[in-house]
Write a structure and sequence with these properties.
This protein is mainly alpha-helical. It has helices spanning 5-24, 36-39, 49-59, 64-77, 106-110, 124-133, 142-153, 159-166; strands at 46-47, 114-115, 140-141, 157-158. The strands form two sheets. It has a two-stranded antiparallel ribbon. A two-stranded parallel ribbon has the order 2-3.
Length: 168
């Protein structure tokens, strides 16, 4: 189990939803090999303290050279503007895979499978598939996941703010 029990429970619920959607809709593009959402984040990633601790635990297990590359990418996010989409600093630029996959944030686990009230949370590739196929999809409730994570794990900070908290 990675992190506190509430994260483990949320992970299980999210994994169940993802499996159900993939099973019912084999065309679903959100899977290994697709990193469209990771390459064009609309905002800096946010995390509760529990998510941050889990993410950091994955980070420190990486080779030193990989850690240094991630830190450089995180430093480049300071002063981020919404006008320029950004790539997740934990994305391997070579193969498009998450370097800390088992330790990733809830936002990463839910993207493309969950929706917020009145707001879509997916990339253009998924939007095109849904438009072309017009399936009935039971997406997960992102607000519920977010509310539960904050109730158990506290308010969120950006990754930059969490990293700054590590500085002496």
């Amino acid at each position: 189990m990675n992190g506190p029990r509430f994260l483990f429970i949320l992970d299980q619920r999210i994994d169940e939803r993802v499996r159900a959607i993939r099973s019912e809709h084999p065309f679903w593009p959100c899977q290994r090999g697709c990193s469209a959402c990771c390459r064009s984040l609309g905002e800096l990633p946010h995390a509760t303290a529990a998510e941050w601790e889990r993410l950091y635990a994955g980070f420190v297990r990486l080779p030193v050279g990989t850690q240094e590359a991630i830190l450089a990418r995180i430093a480049s996010l300071d002063g981020f503007s919404v006008l320029v989409p950004l790539a997740c600093p934990f994305l391997d630029p070579g193969d498009g895979a998450c370097l800390v996959y088992e330790h990733r944030l809830l936002a990463c686990r839910t993207h493309g499978y969950y929706v917020s009230r009145g707001e879509g949370r997916w990339c253009q590739a998924l939007e095109a598939e849904l438009s072309a196929r017009a399936p009935t999809v039971m997406l997960g409730n992102l607000d519920s996941v977010t509310d539960e994570a904050r109730a158990e794990g506290g308010e969120t900070l950006t990754l930059i703010d969490w990293w700054r908290g590590l500085e002496p």
